[in-house]
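Supplementary notes for students who missed Thursday's class. We covered one full example, reproduced here. Read the sequence, then the structure, then the short commentary at the end.
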Amino acid sequence: MSVHSTARKITTNTLQEMKAAGEQITMLTAYDYSLAKLVDRGGVDVILVGDSASNVMAGQATTVPMTLDHMIYHAQCVERAVDRALIVVDMPFGSYQGNSRLALESAIRIMKESNGHSVKLEGGSEIVESIERILTAGIPVMGHLGLTPQSIYKFGTYTVRAKEGEEAEKLIEDAKLLEAAGCFAIVLEKIPSDLAKRVSEAISIPTIGIGAGPDCDGQVLVLHDMLGITTDFSPRFLRRYLDLENQIEDAVKRYCDDVRSGDFPKDSESY
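Structure (token representation):
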């Protein structure tokens, strides 16, 4: 039987078993009840309540404006819909950096108020103290290395990270630090595929790639990007599985035409 049978609730331990068995982990974002229900029923192993909600739900240019209250709200909506997938909730910018006590308080709020299953933090050695403190409360932590969108103003660009030797070696060391601290998995975003392969082989916890090539232990995409709801973002790592932007726009136009022409509602659609 597959280690991620649909009859079985996915846990952090399940992901560890999947890595050991060489079975790929699937992960997508979700931010609301309706789409989270469909994503869960579709068989995804991990649902990320991402701070990318700032971009695709709120129309912000970066993820920086997301607050703890925003993330808890979105996580509450997702949690009500999910039966099987492991739910990971992004800790937003300002809720954990440089203050491990604040990090613990923020993570506890997320877990208590949203019923999420785990949290995700961006960064390496500079946030290890926060990760360790969160773990003291028994809260599972997923790491995130490479391109860390909350640090966009530091990097100044969304280009591929860790292409040079020094940054690549730091990333490998950071991955080992996150594993040693107790993270159950690490997202690797927009790094060279050969580096992602090295990281995946150097640590025993699963790696989840986004723009990091095929040798990670799993893959993640932003739901609205892969469904073609948002089309102004087209990185080379994105595969679109639907063209919902045009389909939804066309459906709305046909609805408007039918109402204006008197075709809707018909007698059969009336009481």
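Commentary. The longest helix spans residues 244-261. Residues 12-240 form a domain with the TIM Barrel fold (CATH 3.20.20.60). If anything here is unclear, bring it to office hours.
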